[in-house]
Structures are given as structure tokens and as C-alpha cells.
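Design job #97: recover the sequence.
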């Protein structure tokens, strides 16, 4: 099965703690949308870069066997995604399953919000009936100034 997502990246004025500032968002969200797939699924993610800056997305914890060019490490496994362009990632999690995360791998963009959860389910999970629901919570530091001024 192919799971297809589009992440539209942009700077958005938000106030997650009541203090308004520019946040690097995906689909207008902070943190970005959760990406879900099942073990063995093909994962296709179109990244539209409207940030006004270069970027890449790293799929943290995904082995990328045979698809290292989709690992998202700027300048090592992938060229930067220029502003105003779209790049499509196309990979499989193989036999992996679990809770992972995706984030920008350029400068400190993920500190300013460009990140989200990546969940790969095992349809044959032996514990599937042992819990009522699944709840994913992501945590991070939050600053009132953009990260570039703090680095």
C-alpha cells in the first residue's frame, strides 16, 4: 500500500504559549502533521517549500535501506530544497515499526517548529487489543525568539 502525504512548509504567525512569533510550520500546523503508515508500506511525501529559505526533511530513525538519497541530511545525502520548489520523498520503512519523528535537517529550523511525528504500525501487533487508544505527544523546548538569534 502507498501512503501519500503533502507537507506545505511556510512561516506562520502563531502563539503556542500566548506569545506571538513567526513559527516554521507544515500545513499551517505546529508541530507538523502526523504521518502514519503500516509496516512495509510505501511512503510518498511531497514537500512544498514556501519558507523563503532552503530546507530538507529527515525521517529520524528510518533506516533508508536502498534509499539513502531520501534521508534528508543536507549536503550529505540530499541537496537542499530551494524555496518555491517541491521535492518528493519516496521510501519504505521495510520491516520497521514504531514511533519516529520527522524534522528539518537544515540549520535550526526544527527548533522553530518544523517537525512532526512519524508512526509506523505493525498490523500484526500482538498487543493491539491491550490498549483502548493511541495518543502521541511530542515535546520540545520553546523560545520567544527565533532560533537563529539564539545560536
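Job complete. Output follows.
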Amino acid at each position: 500500500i502507498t501512503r501519500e502525504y503533502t507537507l506545505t512548509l511556510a512561516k506562520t504567525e502563531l502563539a503556542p504559549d500566548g506569545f506571538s512569533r513567526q513559527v516554521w510550520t507544515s500545513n499551517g500546523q505546529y508541530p507538523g502533521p502526523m504521518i502514519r503508515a503500516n509496516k512495509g508500506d510505501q511512503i510518498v511525501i511531497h514537500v512544498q517549500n514556501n519558507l523563503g529559505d532552503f530546507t530538507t526533511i529527515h525521517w529520524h530513525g528510518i533506516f533508508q535501506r536502498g534509499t539513502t538519497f531520501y534521508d534528508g541530511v543536507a549536503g550529505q545525502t540530499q541537496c537542499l530544497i530551494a524555496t518555491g520548489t517541491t521535492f518528493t520523498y519516496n521510501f519504505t520503512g521495510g520491516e520497521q515499526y514504531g514511533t519516529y519523528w520527522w524534522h528539518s535537517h537544515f540549520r535550526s529550523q526544527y527548533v522553530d517548529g518544523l517537525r512532526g511525528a512519524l508512526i509506523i504500525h505493525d498490523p500484526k501487533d500482538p498487543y493491539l487489543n491491550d490498549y483502548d487508544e493511541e495518543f502521541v505527544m511530542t515535546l520540545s523546548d520553546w523560545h520567544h525568539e527565533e532560533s537563529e538569534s539564539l545560536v
